[in-house]
Design goal:
This protein has one helix and 14 strands, in the order E-E-E-E-E-E-E-H-E-E-E-E-E-E-E. The radius of gyration is 25 Å and the shape is elongated. The protein is mainly beta and about 190 residues long. Strand 9 and strand 10 form a beta hairpin. The chain has a five-stranded antiparallel beta sheet with strand order 4-5-8-9-10.
Length: about 190
């Protein structure tokens, strides 16, 4: 008897995805956020309020740059969380990161917040992919920039594996079986 299998899939149900919140780019988190990101601000007296982990206080500042180091196994579905204030109303947004920005640098994500001046006073949040790409064009008459953080989507465990070129032949005579494979390793375990 000879059996040839053209496609074989090994499934590992132990792969999981979890969210890890990192409030500050240069402070590590227990869930995986790294502490080697940073901030560049115009240098005003209250610029520290942009990253003081206080989502109530904001700053009237023209711009600031910040970057986060990607944790191991973080996914491009991670989200940048930002807060803008429109007059007396605040809004907290979870912004998708453009794949071009995610792929621009293998270890770092680069962002910028711009508070555009008169006549509209608008905050734009951008990511860098060799050029600045706006990921959120803020509401008109935004009067301050507050905070940002990032929700890392981190995958752990082994992914499902598909080996499309694996060919296995199984032959047997007299109650003895021979199993051989090509183009990849084949692991066989006895399970009860």
């Amino acid at each position: 008897m000879v059996l040839i299998v053209g496609y074989l899939m090994f499934v590992n149900a132990e792969q999981t995805s979890s969210w890890c919140y990192q409030e500050t780019a240069n402070v590590s988190t227990a869930c995986g956020g790294l502490d080697n990101g940073g901030y560049i601000t115009p240098g005003g007296a209250y610029d520290y309020m942009l990253y003081d982990e206080n989502w109530i206080s904001g700053v009237v500042v023209s711009y600031y740059y910040f970057n986060y180091s990607k944790p191991t196994n973080s996914e491009s579905s991670s989200l940048l969380q930002v807060k803008n204030k429109l007059g007396g109303t605040s809004e907290i947004l979870n912004l998708s990161i453009l794949s071009s920005c995610w792929n621009y640098n293998s270890t770092t994500l680069i962002f910028k917040a711009d508070l555009l001046g008169e006549p509209q006073d608008q905050t734009n949040w951008s990511c860098y992919d060799g050029n600045w790409k706006i990921i959120n064009e803020g509401s008109l008459y935004t009067d301050m920039i507050y905070e940002e953080g990032i929700y890392w989507n981190i995958t752990t465990g082994e992914p499902d594996v598909v080996l499309p070129s694996l060919h296995i032949s199984l032959t047997g005579t007299n109650n003895h079986l021979k199993l051989s494979g090509t183009n990849s390793r084949l692991n066989i375990r006895n399970q009860t």
